[in-house]
Structures are given as structure tokens and as C-alpha cells.
Amino acid sequence: MSPQKQAVAVDVAMADHSPGFLFERAIEAIQYTISDEDRRTFRHFNDVKAMLDGMRSMCLAHQDDSERLQACIQKIASFAHAFAPYFDVVGLFANVHREWISCFWGSIALMIRTGSIYILLLEKTAHLFEIIARGLPQYKLLLPSFKLDFRTVTDGHMELLSHLYADIVQLCLELYCMFSRAQGAKLRHRLFNLRSAAWRPLDSRFTHLQQRLARHKSWIERTLGQSTDNLLHHREYSTFLKSAESVCGQIEFEGERMARRLKRVDKVKAWLSNCCSYRDIYEHKISQRHPDTCAWFLESEKYCRWKNKPFNERTANSIDSLTETWHERILFVQGKPGFGKTFISGAIIDDLRDGVKDSNIGNEPPTTAFFHFNAAHLYCACSNDAIRALAAQLVHAHRHDRNTLDALSLLMRKASPHDKASCDDVFEILQLLLRQHPTFLVIDGVDECTDIAALLTKIPELCEKSDTRAILLSRPHLEIPIKYQKWASDSPHILYLSDGQNEVDIESYITSHLNQLADQGYFGINMDRSLFQDVASRSNGMFLWASLLLKYLGSTSLAPEERRSILEHSNLLQGLEPLYNGIFSTLDKKIGRDKNLAVDVIRWLSLSIRRLCVPGLQVALRFDLKRANGEGVNLTKLTESLTRSTCGLVEIANCNVTFTHSSVKEYLQSSACQSPDFSLLDESAAHGHLAARCLTFLASEIPKKPLQRLQPYIQPAAPLATHSGLSIRTGSSRDSGYRSMSSSSDTDGISSETAPAPAFDANIPFLRYATLCWPIHLTRALSGIRTPNSLPTSPSSPSADSPSHIPWLSPLSNFLANRIAITTWAEASWRYNFSPNLSRLLPLLINLKSEIPPATVDGRDIRWTVQGLRDSSDALNELREKWGARLRENPSLIWQWKDEEGQPGFWPRWDEGRGCVIFEEVDEDEEM
């Protein structure tokens, strides 16, 4: 587009112009606004029928969303049929040029065709036109009365009629701009005198359009009908149009306008339900990255070729070109575990953000959005987590862009503040944002995605509808779908990372940090620094090995002479497995509180059913240590000590406590781990310990009273279902009574679709986990338990009746003996929308009872526990059958329950006035 065309700005006042002035200007605006490709393929339709036939033919090419698209076209058709007689009215005052009609219907068809790949937004758009249709005058009914009185024919009438035409064309062009990327569209070719300082989002402009439409309808019905005050009505309408333009042209206080726009953007982010865990990973790795590393990758030929190819507006607006070339815009980067791919991804993000701004690869500087998959982080596990995060980043990055704000305002128009975007909605928003703006996507840890197939299906869908470039980092075993292959090309494009490429980076990283440790006295005096070079050569291209070794050497668990010995015999720790053996050998030598902390945090991070929030983990660890040492633990100091106590195996970010690398858990679950206290080869024992922690917490740490004030029972307006449709997602259908569902992430249960945590547990962050997950831990412990009969007998083995074999038995017994604790747990379960169920635990305990000699301490305890569990399970089943629907509505009713004879029965009753439990009393008459 030439600079002369880009400089065009049309300001129209209510001045002396030809009657068809706005019609001609509207057609000119169409030509200036749409892209060269769309101008070449622009279709002219002579009437409504031709336009609608063309749109219905388009539906046949969109088989996936054909029904939704047809519904949109039906709404557009209602507008078209209502508006078509408008041209007959115009014909009363002037000759209607064929181009006025054909360009009008053509602009509507272009808008629909451009938006047809964004069905959600097109549905919102069709609703706007449906509203306009309802607000139009009934031209067809009024037309006969117009023809009866030609005394009203004036150029002024023609001019006022033309404003509606220009309004609709302008709306179509604005929607077209929202659906596409065109530099001409950025000019906002206005048909009215609306200054840029007074620009408003689409929903605000549409409200103004509705006001203009209402005045137009009033003028048509009064002035062009049989009214005797034609001149007066003409002046009123003309004055309104002038005043409306004047108001819209006023410069509003910039701060107030920006505040409202940013508030709108925040509302959209909340609607997208994004979480910041992926950003914590990026910021954490950036803080650890050694200066001047990864330069070799940023200069590699494949990466530079992928990065430096210009973004082209013509290609961006051509679906055919995008579909043909999407393979060329996706680059896979693959390297072995521990190579340092996450560090490389951080360098890529910084390079694309900073290095591309000054390069000549497009008219608009590209935006960079990123995501790090990490199964140990909340909201970083499945493909939908990535889609939400990428969409939220782009919403924030383009929060000042008018096209983006128009799309967001259209989406959120009259939306409920409690609505949450579905996965399909978020994906469509991401597609549109990528279409509007040139974008780089950086996705790290693809192999840790729980639904890789879904992710690798969505990436091409994004690149087929936009000129987006994506770079995906993963381990070499990633199976790339055959769709990524293209005949007569080298697709898929894969950049393999080999050991020698990062050798210089690792050497610089190790020697620099070892010198720092030596300067700080970690190796004592007279340290031979020539060893540092030899240590650096042992990495075998594994940045993870270098990082773990440095954290190990910096641990307070080692004495200076031990650190020197490690350096002198670094060959013994060459490779991840020998290094892990050395670290856990050191952890095994710890005693007391430090070892308990290391063991417990590793168990929680490895085997938790759902990832604990930092406050919840703090409570769990504090409680464990409090029991072991008989004293409380400062939570802040506890968090700070985790990395030190685990020799660097555990990291702490803003939102999560995680392993340094996923290989830590892989090592613990393998036969290579020889530490009995840390090994997870037999996970059932560790699950037993975690079940014991949860049960003890429920029995002694939560309030022995209702979690909220008692509420009387209110009959629901409609019958409720007799079972809970919700369940906690686990990996096994055997997990207690909680019905499992296939899940892409252990965190899905607390994802965007879940309501915010209720106020009752605000000060008890571990309550949700302990309430919902202790039956699952206990089920997994029982499913793989080694009974005393199966244990090897040796002089060093504990006696068969030692409770250490069954760590959960005593806590479970104490919990079942405490009716108040059971009642509080049941109430909490219903408040979390889960119906408490112990039915699947009972047969597992009975089976265990049959294998433990009854004469032992464990044998006697488990028999009592089985009876207590049976009583509790029967009481829960009875409660669920009779009061299940009511308890889901009002969980506090469990404290008010009576049996059929009016007796409290199993469940204690709470006296709200006295603030205590009411125990069953014997009636004096019955006693006599």
C-alpha cells in the first residue's frame, strides 16, 4: 500500500456535499482498508439472495463447525432481509448506484468469510447484527407511505439516510480488521469525525451505534411518514448526529480511559483462568543461567534460518499459503535429559524478545510467548495449560492494540463475571491473536506434557491459520506425528543437541562456581584449583550433572575435607546415577530433624496425589517435624532449609516446591537407589507414611467442631441428584471410594473449572489435601503392602508385632475412635463436593487382617480397626442414602442428624448456643 493511500483520513462534517457523498466514501474506505489479497478476491453481490447463497456455499467447506456457522449466517440473513428495503427508500431520493449495493453486501460477506475460522467470535458478531436487525425501521411496511408524499424529497434526507449505510460499512470493516492482519486496517479509516484520542472499544462503539440507529428509526417513522412537522424532525436528527460526533470527538482524561481498558484486560485474563507457574520456571532458570552461555545455539544455522525469515502480511492473510507453509515454521530441538534445554529455552526467549526488535523481518515487531511443561508444577502439565498461558500472555502483550481490544470487548460483552472460558474458547482466542500479530512460540519440556498427542495436534492447527513460528524443545524419544512430514522437504525440522556443543559453556559454568566456593572457604585452605578443569571434563555434555554437583558441594552437609575428596575422586561420580548415589549416601548419614525433613519432603514431592500448595506443604512438613521432635517449626525457616537439607535436590519457586529435575524421582523409583529410607521402588510403604500424616493431622490438628456455623435445612426448589458427579482424579480406579477419571494432569481437580477455595479452610491450607487424599494413600499402601509373613526374618529385622511395619495403623485407629474428628472430616468432604466413602478400604483391611497373627500387637490393633472402619463405613452409607442430596446443599446438617427414632446415633450433635458437642443422654423415665 502506497504512503499516499496510508495518509488518507476522511473527516466528514454535516456540510455541503453531494447526496451520495457518504456512499462513495464508504466504498473508498473498503478499498483502503482491506488487504491486497482480499481486494483482489472481493466479491460483489447484487442482492441479498446472491450474498446468502455464497455464504451457504462457504459452509460446505467448514464441515467441523458447519452447524454453528449456519446458525451465524441465519442471524446475518435476518439482518440482510430487514435492511434490503433500505435501498428502495434511498431510491426515492436519488439513483442508487449498483456499486453501492454490491459493495455493501460484499463487505458483509468478506467479514463473514474472514471470521469463519473463529466461530466463537463470529457467533458474537452475528448476535450484534441480530440486534441491529431488531432496531431497524420496517422499511418494507413504510415504503408505500413514503411514495405518497414526494414533497419531502430533499438532498438533506438523502444525506441523513446515508449515515446508516456508512455506520454498517464501518462496523463490517472494523470486524474485518479484528479478524485479519492488514496494515491498511491499522489506520482505522473512519467515516466520521472521531479523533484517535476518543477511540473506544467495540462494545462501547456498538452502544453508540445503537443510539444512532434508534434516532434513525424515529426520524424515518416520523419524518418520512405522514407527519406534518417534517422540517422539525429533520433538524432534530441532524442536530443529534452533529452532537454525537462532537461528544465522541472530545478528548477524555487519558488516565481514566486507560484504567477502564486495563480493567477490561484483567477481566479477560480471569476469564482465561491462567496461572503463572510457567513464568516461575523461566525466571528461576534465568537467575541460574551463567552469563554468555548458549551463544553457540543462538548462532546455529537451523535456528537462525527459522528465526530470521521475514513475516509477510500477504502470507499472513492467505489461508492457502499458511496451510502450504506451516511445516517450515516449526522447529524441534531435541537433546538428552539433563543437557540444559530449559536454560537454552530461556536464552531463546530473551533472544527473540530483544534481538528481533531491531531486525527487518516484518512491519510489526514480533511478540514472543512461551511455556515450560513441568509435571511437578501446578498448571504446567497438559496441553490446555499451555494454551491458556500463551493466550493470556498475548492478551497482556497487545492490551493497547485496538484490534485486540475489539475482540476482547466482543467476547466479554455482557458476560458474567463468574464465567470461565472453555478449552475450545481459549484455543480460538489464541488462534485469533496469532492471526492479528506476528508471534514466536517457545515451548519447553514437551516430553513432560501429559497429553503430547493433543499438543502436537494443536500446534499445526495454530500454524495453519496464522504465520506463527513455534520452537519445541524435548528429549529425543518424542514421537513426531506423520502429519509433520512433507513430501520433497526435510520436514519435520529437527535440531539435535550433541554432547560437544555445550562443552565450553559447562566448563565456564563449573570453573567459575568452583572458584567462588574456593574463595568462600568451602574447600578449606591450600586448595589445588587445577582440579577444577578435570571436574569440568566429567560432565559428558550434561548441564544437569554440573548443576547438581555444584549444589552438592555447596551443601552444609559436607565438611571441607569431604568436598576436596569429591573433587579429587570426581571420576567416581561421573554420570547422573553415581552422583545421585553419592548425594543420597550423604543424606543417609544425616540424623534427627534434618534427615526427617529430607525424607518427608521427598515423599511428598514424589507421591502426592495432587500437588500441594506451598502453605499446605509447609503445614505437612511442620507437622511431621513437630511430631518427631516435640516442638514447633518456623515456617519461613522451614522453607528456606529445604534446599540445604536435600543437598540441592529440591528447589523453591514462588508458587511451588519441586525437584531440581524429573530425573530425581526417576532415580528414586529405580533399583539403582540403594537408600532404604529414600527409595521409592516399593511405593506402598511411602504411601503408608503419607496416609499416616494425613490421618494424624485430621485427628489432632483440625478444629473439633463444625467448620462453619450450622445452617437449618431448606427444601431445595428442584430435586437433587442422589450421587456426586464430582470426583478426585487419580491414577487408579481402586483408590478408596473416590471414583477416578482419566486425567491429563493431577492438578486438573483444582483447575480453572473448580470454584475458589471456600473461606472455611483459609487458615487450614492442608485440610483439603488431607481430607480428600488420605483414603487414596491408604488404598495404595494396602494394595502393595508387605505383611509380616512375607518379610524376611533376620536378627536385625524388627519383630513381627512392631508397629513400624504398618505406620498408618495407629493413626487410623485413633482417627476412627474419634467420632468428632470423623464428623469434621465428613463435613469437609461434602464442602469440597466429594461424598465421603470408605467402602473400598474395608475389603483391603480384612485381607490384611487375615495375614497378621492375631496374637501380635498389630494383629489385635487391626482387628479393632477393621470393626471401627466397618462401623464408620456403614454410618456413611446410611447417611449418604438418606441425606446425601441435603448434605451436598448444606454439609453442616451432619452435626444435626438424628436417626428414625430421634436419637443421635453414630454422629455427634453440635449445640450452637453452648458451643460444644451434645452426647446422648439416657431418659430418666426409661431408667426407672
From TrEMBL:
Q: Which domain of life is it from?
A: Eukaryota
Instruction: Give the compositionally biased regions (Low complexity).
Output: 731-752
Assigned keywords, A-Z: Repeat
Region labeled Disordered — which residues?
725-754
**Nephrocystin 3-like N-terminal domain residues:** 292-474
Signal peptide from the UniProt entry: none
Name of this protein: Nephrocystin 3-like N-terminal domain-containing protein
From which source organism is this entry? Dendryphion nanum
